[in-house]
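Quick question, first post here. What does this chain look like in 3D?
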Amino acid sequence: MTVFRGIAHVYGDNIDTDRIIPGKYTKTLDVQTLAAHALEDLDPAFASRVRLGDILVAGHYFGAGSSREQAALAIKAAGISVVIARSFAGIFYRNAINIGLPLVEAPDHAILNGHQVWVDLGQGLVIDETAGCIYRATKMPPVMVAILRAGGLVNYLRQYGSYEAADRV
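> Answer (accepted):
Ran it through. Tokens below.
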């Protein structure tokens, strides 16, 4: 899927992986445990408030810090369909794509908490339906869209065998 629509949960700049999932939960890959503790140090009510398909929105440098894959897993397991940020830390970006969590960079967004948001990965568009604003996002390369459609890198490689297969998808 490359088009998403959901309610925005908005946070600020420099949200690091320790704020996304506290270090004490990194010893598990149980996605239910990760989901239950996603963003708990930043927003203790997040896990109980988020609904399947909602959208996480952040400022600059989202996902800074360690290379732990559990940060992206926690967000995805909590029900977030896509993350929009002004910018992402590189390792978090790659981990998210690898596990099938879509990310969109929209450097000039002004999305507010609770707004209805629509995202088209293929077109590089973010629409804040509540405010009536359209933001141009960084367009995702076709191979990354194909990896997301497959549900992550492992599934993609099982289906197609190589990155070059994206030209045929």
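The domain at 3-138 is CATH 3.20.19.10 (Aconitase; domain 4).
The mean pLDDT is 92.
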